[in-house]
Predict the structure.
Amino acid sequence: MLDLGTSFLASVERDPKALAIVDGDVRLTYGAWYDKISSLVAAFDDLGLTAGDHLITVLQNRWEAATVHWACQFAGVIVTPLNWRAKEDEIDFGIENAEGSAVVFQDVSAEAVANAKATQDLPRICIDFPAASAIDFARLVSAKAVDATPRANADAWSLCFTPRARPRARKACRGVTGPSAPPLSHMWRRISIATANARWV
């Protein structure tokens, strides 16, 4: 079965020196980007993230957000993106609703993440600036790269939705909307991040 992680590997194998992503001054080939992605997959393992866990992101459109997305594809972790303008109560709701296991944030969302009660006991990964009690994203993606292969899971429902949301999710996928539909955060399954500042070439 072809999944997004396998499709990315195919691009790496076909032409590792081809330009893959551009974000301002950052220009990464498929090979170089894969090294960063696979380093992040290893970091997820070290943090105890497993297939089906939700990783909350509070990020603007940037190459790091796309890197997190692809690492989640390989690890089987589900990206649950929140708006970078989210307030602390909205972050608390998002984490509780999605049963979040970790959070990735940046300078513009740092204050809200720091003040959100639900983030206090979670691994927190920060981008571009030092934050107390947070893990530096740059250190994670510059660690030794490992061979990452997509981790298949026969039960797609367990990867896409938390147990309490799964029955409602099935209904929603049959066209049911309204109160019986699953929370929006659970509908963010393995989606591609389309960005204005970071683009795939």
Summary: Residues 152-201 have pLDDT under 50 and may be disordered. The chain has two domains: 4-147, 163-188. The CA atoms of residues 78 and 190 lie 7 Å apart.
